[in-house]
Amino acid sequence: MANYYTDNKDLAFIVERVVDWPAILALKEDFGSPDCPWSGPDEAKATFVEMLRDPVGEIAANRIAPRAEEVDDIGCRFDAGRVIFPDALERNLKDLRDAQLMGMTIPRRYGGLQFPETVYTAAIEIISQADASLMNFFGLQGGIAETIAQFASEELKERYLPRMSTGEFTGAMALTEPDAGSDLAAVQTRAKDASGGEGIAARQDPTTGQWTISGTKRFITNGCGDVILVLARSEDPEKKGGGRGLSFFLVEKNPRVRVRRIEHKLGIHGSPTCELYFDECPAWLIGARGMGLARYTAWLMLAARLAIGAQALGIAQAALAEAEAYARQREQFGRPIREMPQVAAMLADMRMLAEAARAVLYATSEIVDLHQGAEVRGLKEETRRYGRLAEALTPIAKYYTTEAANRICYDSLQVHGGNGFMQEYPIERLYRDVRITNIYEGTSQIQINWAIPRLVRGDLDDLMGALAAREYADADLARLHQEVLRSYEVYKSVIAWLREKDNSFREMTGPQVIDIFVEIYAAFLLLRHAELWDHKRAVAARFIRRLGPRVAMNRDLVLNARLETLEA
Amino acid sequence: MPRVFVVAELNDGVLNDLSLQCIGAARAMAGADGTVVVLLPGTGAAAAAAPLNAPGVAEVLVADDDRLAAYTTEPYLAVVKAALAGRPAEAILLPATTIGNDLGAALAAALGAACVTDADGVGAEEGRPAAWRVGFDRKVRTVWVAAEGRPLVATLRDGAAEAPAGSGTAAVEALSLDGAVSQTPCRVVRRDVAKKTVNLRDAKVIVAAGAGVGGPEGLELIRRLATALGAELGGTRAVVDAGWMSADRQIGQTGATVRPDLYIACGISGAIQHRVGMLDSRTVIAINTDPNAPIFRSAHYRIVGDLKVVIPKLLKLLGA
Amino acid sequence: MPHTIAVIAREVWDTRDLTGQILDEAGGLRPGALQTRFDPEDLNALELALRIKDAHGARVVAVGLGAPRQVEVLRECLYRGADAAVTATGDLAAADTAAHARRLAGAVRSLGRVDLLLVGTAVPDDDNSLLARHLAAELGWPAVSWVDAIEELAVDRVVARRAVEMGYEYVETPLPAVLAVGVALLEDDPRAPRPAKAMLKLKMKKAEIPTVPATDEPAPLTLRVRREAVPPRAIETATVDPENEAALRAMLDAALKGA
């Protein structure tokens, strides 16, 4: 029987041989305490691997994947104020609940598994390979629950986390508004009574202390869920404008929050995207007032970016498998098309790109784990250090994995030729599903804008410096490492040059700069992997052979860029 | 091998023709100096027993009793034991059907005999009765040899031996059952069993459908392909259970074993329970959307694709 | 009082997609040439037991034989929701279904009152006979083979749906009874037995599995085994592109020749 964990050799390699579990677990577990189910990191790691095999890999391959076509065909419907799921989706959700997977990262004392983010990232990739739309239930649950676990009052935690662990409750994040998409600081200021309902505003009853929220949120994934985290304006805009006037609230599904409509979308038909209308809806404040955007949304976004990256990678893995299978059986000119050099090269590039993206995603996931662990422990210095890395790396990883996944799906469809355009082949669905990944939870452009100032500031210099300083005993790898170092010098010169430029210029050339950075970072990681697994030597060699020319090209594009030409 | 005993099988008054293959195997096992005794239990056995009187059969016994209408283990076991009481045997052969495998294993347990179910052949090794089965993905033949002093009970798969031709000289006698049919703890309360109207085993070309046909609409395509080829229609248990096809068209472990010249498997993933029924087809064409479907391992022609796309193309080529 | 259901969980050779030589020169199975897995029909039997537990409440106990080779089938039962597991010892080398049945029956008896004993019908490659029948004989219980659904379950009897060649029969039997579970147990969707439950897996990963010592005399061996390699029957599989009309025509011409 198929298993999406054990069948994915690259993922299994990353999980079993690359991720530094002892480092993560040193921060996230107290071995020896009665609450800890493991005696040490090896045992914990063995459990993670076992769990990814069964239930996660098992359920994905044998239950969820066979239903993906039905979920996509039927999709979610909206009828008389209610969102109706396709039967196959209900069965998927029941399977996830029965397998006790909905609380994967929730603390054990609230009924969850309390697994590291990196295990969750792998699980999200596996589930998304089976059905990308299901990830929006499975993969967003974690970030939402973790935000509650980290910042909400004990009372709210006890009320909601156990039921999120069992999957009785699913979650939603209500951030976007009709006029506040990428620019969340623009979340509406006007109260409902003044504006007629556009935007959203939170008010506190001066006597009871109870908050109410009014207004409209849009494009809310699973907005029909039971626990909704809402970003809303709580402060007087005259005194605290912009992002500083926003707070974070928890709303439990109730008649005062209504789904007004659901969107008809290009893809992920199994995930309802709702417009929500809050009508003086009771809400509970999470954490401190005015910290909604700067602290809680930012924290939530670290996990959410990883989740979307993993979702994209799962779709890419499915598309890759489809392309490989098709190219093996499809014959033209008397031979399977995979024997034709162009097709063979496309397939090799797809595999390479998937492995490079996976290397970056899981390295980032590891950092997010270290950051969370330090934060939960209250280790100030580590929290700051890992936080800086995580805030620079997560947007880059999200950008790189989702763009790579789009590229892979594009090429997979191309390998299918005319057949790929037809609904009979799964690639048609994968191609539609992947398209949202580089848009939601921050477009690629937003991710780049997040990352660029951090690269210019040098937030990742230590990390890259350590990778650059590695020495390879193996002569082939040492030679490849030297090649990467040449590109790394180019990167440093580009950054130095960029320091003299203004913000507009940096943002304009951001895509090239980020590409230079992330490809060098991926090359460093692939070299490390090549020390552990012979298969990776060929992957690293192919990747690095193309790195020099690509970095040179991107450098030249940056150096030749002119803001004035934008008007052309 | 002096004495070999065959328990033949009756299905709703119709003799199961694997019983004749068992007689063929029994004769070969008994050799020139041995005897072959055949027992047919079941309601209506007397009327159906004539074909069992094959050359080389010494005795044909029938146990025709209303209490043996629907198969349950205990009364059948009691009858076989009663028949064996005066006719000890070194080997006892039954067809490898759902009844034969159940009854054979129960009999072996009751007699302390060696038991081999689903045997591909029987014979002797160092003077002891033996049976073998090919397993381990068709890579290993396992031979089980009965221990000294223990009889062998074997159930034979379709094709394990040839059915004998011609008729013999034995008289058909009724087995005296006085009290042999015991009270059964089990009771068949309802049956939902079809009458057999097609015999897939004689078909030269078979077009078979699996769960991948999706529904009656997909099945219509398969039907048209069968008509165009002058073929019989077959299916997996899943298709029969879904009510898309009658049970006599089922191929596999609880259905027919077929060996046509051409077998076209449409939307069949190829679970081993199905493949055992079609593995010996001369040429196999398999159509499936899943490139890793196990059916492809038994196929001479492998077409990865949607049958709703592929079959119309085949129909066009066939001028249908 | 809810029923107690015992389920036999066998670890069997995984004989799908075998490559290379399996036998050594002496006809023994080459160590390392084969992996093991949870017998798929025993897994169906477990699924049936757990569905009875879901619907009516029941105590489900998994019973295994011998030390695990690679797959911890008994713990896998606990991960899926079985309430307990025990393992019987001995007689493994004997490789006779009848001998295995005696040890397993002893373990089942040690559990106290058991209403139903479920086991997969299929005879694995290395077994010679239907385990369910031998268990029934050892325990003196009635048995129904090729069961793929429970129609009705009462305190003292069960009506089981039995698959036969041309359809189904519904067989009533008093309890305790042995039911041999067939392949068609599963509904259309889900198509596979349930996977592990994550929390249970976390909790049960170190669960002690008690061993039931053999108290009966071992069953006398009824047979001996010899294995020999079968020369591979090579099937040349040609992949035919469904979009290629000429290839499809050539395939039909070749396949229909002489048919």
Report on this model:
The complex is a heterotrimer of chains A (568), B (320) and C (259). The longest helix of chain A is centred in the middle third of the chain and has 38 residues, at 292-329. In chain A, strands 3, 4, 5, 6, 7, 8 and 9 form a seven-stranded mixed beta sheet that branches. Helix content of chain A is 58%, strand content 11%. Chain A is built from 19 helices and eleven strands. With 320 residues, chain B is an alpha/beta fold. In chain B, strand 8 (121-125) and strand 9 form a beta hairpin. Chain B starts with a strand and ends with a helix. The N and C termini of chain C lie far apart (62 Å). Chain C has a single domain, classed as HUPs (Rossmann fold, 3-Layer(aba) Sandwich), CATH 3.40.50.620. Chain C has helices at residues 40-56, 73-80, 97-109, 131-139, 198-204, 245-256; strands at residues 3-8, 11-14, 35-38, 58-65, 84-88, 116-120, 143-153, 157-164, 167-174, 177-181, 211-212, 223-229, 238-239. Chains in contact: A-B, A-C, B-C. At the B-C interface, helix 4, strand 7, strand 10, strand 13 and helix 6 of B face helix 3, helix 4, strand 7, strand 8 and strand 9 of C.
Overview features:
heterotrimer; B: 320 residues; alpha/beta; Rossmann fold; 2 domains; seven-stranded parallel sheet; five-stranded parallel sheet; 18 strands; 24% helix; elongated; C: 259 residues; nine-stranded mixed sheet; two-stranded antiparallel ribbon; 25% helix
